[in-house]
Design brief:
Blueprint lengths: L5 E2 L41 H4 L4 E2 L5 H7 L2 E9 L6 E5 L2 E5 L3 E10 L3 E5 L1 H4 L1 H6 L3 E9 L11 E5 L5 E3 L4 E7 L3 H5 L6 E2 L9 E5 L7 E3 L18 E4 L11 E4 L5 E7 L10 E5 H8 L4 E2 L10 H15 L3 H14 L4 H21 L5 E3 L2 E3 L26 H6 L22 H14 L4 H13 L3 H13 L4 H12 L7 H14 L2 H13 L7 H13 L3 H13 L8 H15 L2 H13 L7 H13 L3 H8 L5 H13 L13 H13 L11
Parallel strand pairs: 1-9, 12-19
Antiparallel strand pairs: 2-14, 3-6, 3-8, 4-5, 6-7, 7-11, 8-9, 9-11, 10-11, 13-14, 13-16, 15-18, 16-17, 17-18, 20-21
Helix pairs in contact: 7-8, 7-9, 8-9, 11-12, 12-13, 13-14, 14-15, 15-16, 16-17, 17-18, 18-19, 19-20, 20-21, 21-22, 21-23, 22-24
């Protein structure tokens, strides 16, 4: 098939003669838009299309902002040749395959400023192909706008230099130059040169790519950083993820699903048919450090060192809040205003004094009346007013009733949480688009209420707005909120919104533990497990995790199950005990990873009697809870038939599937699983917003 709107390029004369070995007469490269039904030789000639079918979706179905970025991502076609132009046989996984010369393979590449392209180094120099003799790039082309196999007239194709501009073997990164045309001008720009330097486990990702030479696709729902990313040191460039890929996906950018900042560069497959393992890539920060591409770190605001006056003011405010006598409290709050007039603590002191004044006004007002402006109107709630009347809600901050903020952002482990709401164990399950405005309104109405300030901070924290979250954590802590101490410690531990300071983090964690926050015990366990700011000690970590688990901390309960499952940290390997801990995590908080482990254990008879029906039940619940590996396992076509039939029954009962209970994991079953996973059904106890 001919290429439409081909931008003609002038190649360097005799460029192939630059190679040490002479190349014989060249055949024409077979470039086309035909879909390759077999995975390309990149990476390592892996075939995973059957196991992963149905995961990625056409780019036309992507959100508008993803489609905007996708304009600058294209299919890179690379034509490789042997020195003598003859075929070569390659060995992959114990089987042989003969490749003709020229041989065309595909990757995904992103458009940078200056008409440069970023992809994987192995798109030109794949080890298996190089060893076989495919050492020379005869021609390369980049195709933008290939989104539909039936409509290729609008595809914009450019020639690409057959020699790289720059490369970095350590991060498998390659920079190429577009020749003979201005892609930046034709497309109106380039990918956003903004990067996210944090590789947080389970961070949701989006990937735009051309798997198996297909028209452009995007991966989202199951696409995230692998939980085992936490096992790598922060200094490592490696990035583990579970985004669905296949040959042709090499070189795709991994984008933060929320901000679309670039997180990494995908380069290899690694997920196994049983759902274990992970795909690989490299952090974009490491690629930037090696190649100086021009990416800038995404920051909500520049981190600032804490001002000593702010620290002194916070201490003074804490002292004022601790005063038991109302007169003393008022006097000390006024001193905060006087001594630290332009600090955050002064703003809070002013709000607290105003709240006290209004409470006194309410106490003096006759019953069944509301305060409106500066006068009292006994019929305010009954009037059909013609103009805008602002009713200022005034309530005693000691007994603030349930608010929308409580329903959307509470923490079940918060000792000061209101009893009538369940809350979300996982902060990242909070629906921040609803929770932040609800909590901002609640704090405006009740500025002195510790739990509301904490919940607003928690929602902002979940939205990666760390600098905005910190003052609300501080306000809550100053007002006596214990859990805020632990969260302040985490911000220092991770360097989020403040400079990273392990000593300061430990001080807050220990202070919170002494005050009775059991989640602080887990925070200290994490420090020992990771060896961050303290000597790595897995056994000490296990002891602390056990203490936290025995006091009901959900993630520590899961961690104890994991310790017994793996036999790590000096804990005996005991599948039966592991199953008991996992069940407890499921009962308390519908913990997704625990559901997944139980599904696997029932499938394999580890610590429990083998039961494929139970395995299907736990797998289905894990998919409902948003566990990507459970979704992958559920889609596998070669599992036990009973498991597949039971899974279809659960899907039908859930109302997502109306097909036959035949155990065939076909398109209808896969679509139903995707729908269940993407819906993320309401489950407040499991940490899913309602």
């Amino acid at each position: 098939m001919s290429y439409s709107r081909l931008i003609q390029a002038v190649f360097f004369a005799g460029s192939l003669s630059l190679f040490a070995s002479p190349v014989s007469a060249l055949n024409e490269c077979d470039f086309s838009f035909d879909v390759d039904q077999e995975s390309s030789a990149l990476p390592a000639i892996r075939r995973r299309a059957e196991a992963l079918r149905g995961y990625w979706r056409p780019i036309r179905e992507a959100p508008d902002d993803v489609q905007q970025v996708a304009r600058f991502i294209g299919r890179l076609d690379v034509c490789l040749v042997t020195p003598d132009g003859k075929p070569r046989t390659i060995d992959v996984g114990g089987s042989s395959r003969t490749l003709e010369s020229p041989y065309v393979t595909t990757c995904t590449a992103a458009l940078l400023p200056g008409n440069r392209l970023l992809a994987n180094r192995h798109c030109f120099y794949e080890e298996t192909l190089v060893k076989a003799g495919f050492r020379h790039v005869q021609e390369a082309r980049i195709n933008f706008g290939y989104i539909d196999a039936d409509f290729t007239d609008e595809v914009l194709t450019f020639h690409v230099s057959s020699r790289e501009v720059a490369q970095d073997e350590a991060t498998d990164a390659l920079v190429m130059q577009i020749l003979g045309g201005d892609a930046n001008e034709r497309l109106g720009g380039h990918i956003p040169m903004v990067m996210e330097t944090r590789a947080t486990p389970r961070r949701a990702l989006t990937m735009i790519h051309h798997p198996r030479r297909q028209p452009q696709r995007f991966s989202s729902g199951t696409c995230q950083i692998h939980p085992d990313q936490s096992d790598l040191p922060e200094s490592s460039s490696l990035l583990r993820h579970v985004c669905e890929t296949d040959g042709g996906s090499s070189g795709a950018l991994l984008l933060d699903a929320r901000t679309l900042a670039v997180v990494g560069l995908h380069n290899r497959a690694g997920l196994r048919p049983d759902g274990s393992g992970f795909n690989g890539g490299h952090k974009i920060a490491a690629v930037e450090a090696a190649l100086n591409l021009g990416f800038e770190e995404r920051k909500p605001a520049a981190a600032k060192a804490p001002d000593s006056s702010e620290v002194d003011a916070a201490l003074a405010l804490a002292s004022a809040m601790a005063a038991k006598d109302k007169i003393d409290r008022e006097a000390e709050l006024n001193l905060v205003l006087q001594d630290f007039p332009d600090t955050r603590a002064a703003n809070l002191a002013r709000s607290l004094l105003e709240a006290d004044r209004k409470k006194d006004a309410v106490k003096k007002a006759p019953p069944d009346r509301v305060v409106i402006g500066n006068f009292v109107d006994a019929d305010a709630e009954k009037k059909d007013t013609q103009g805008p009347v602002v009713v200022e809600i005034i309530e005693d901050s000691v007994d603030v009733p349930e608010t929308e903020c409580d329903r959307l952002a509470a923490d079940p482990m918060d000792r000061q949480k209101i009893d009538s709401v369940a809350g979300f164990y996982d902060m990242y399950r909070i629906d921040v688009s609803r929770a932040i405005p609800a909590c901002e309104l609640a704090v405006q109405r009740h500025p002195a209420e510790p739990r509301l300030n904490f919940q607003l901070a928690r929602a902002l924290d979940a939205d990666d707005r760390y600098e905005d979250a910190m003052p609300y954590y501080q306000r809550a802590q100053a007002a006596g909120h214990v859990g805020s101490m632990t969260m302040i410690g985490w911000l220092y531990q991770n360097g989020q919104g403040v400079p990273k300071d392990y000593a300061e983090a430990e001080r807050w964690f220990r202070k919170a533990r002494e005050a009775g926050d059991v989640k602080a015990i887990e925070a200290l366990a994490y420090r020992y497990r990771k060896g961050e700011g303290i000597g790595k000690d897995l056994e000490a970590a296990a002891r602390l995790y056990r203490q936290a688990a025995e006091q009901g901390v959900l993630s520590s309960i899961y961690r104890m199950g994991w310790y017994h499952y793996e036999g790590a940290g000096g804990v005996e390997k005991d599948y039966a005990k592991a199953a008991r801990w996992f069940r407890q995590a499921v009962e308390i908080g519908n913990h997704a990873a625990s559901l997944w482990y139980l599904a696997s254990m029932y499938s394999n008879g580890q610590g429990v009697a083998q039961d494929h029906s139970e395995s299907a039940a736990y797998t289905f619940r894990a998919v409902l809870a948003g566990h990507s590996r459970a979704l992958e396992q559920a889609k596998m076509p070669n599992t036990v038939e009973l498991f597949r039939r039971e899974l279809q029954r659960f899907l039908k009962k859930h109302g997502a599937y109306d097909g036959a209970i035949d155990g065939v994991i076909g398109p209808a079953t896969i679509a139903a699983l995707d729908a269940v996973f993407d819906t993320m059904s309401c489950d407040p106890d499991g940490g899913r917003p309602c």
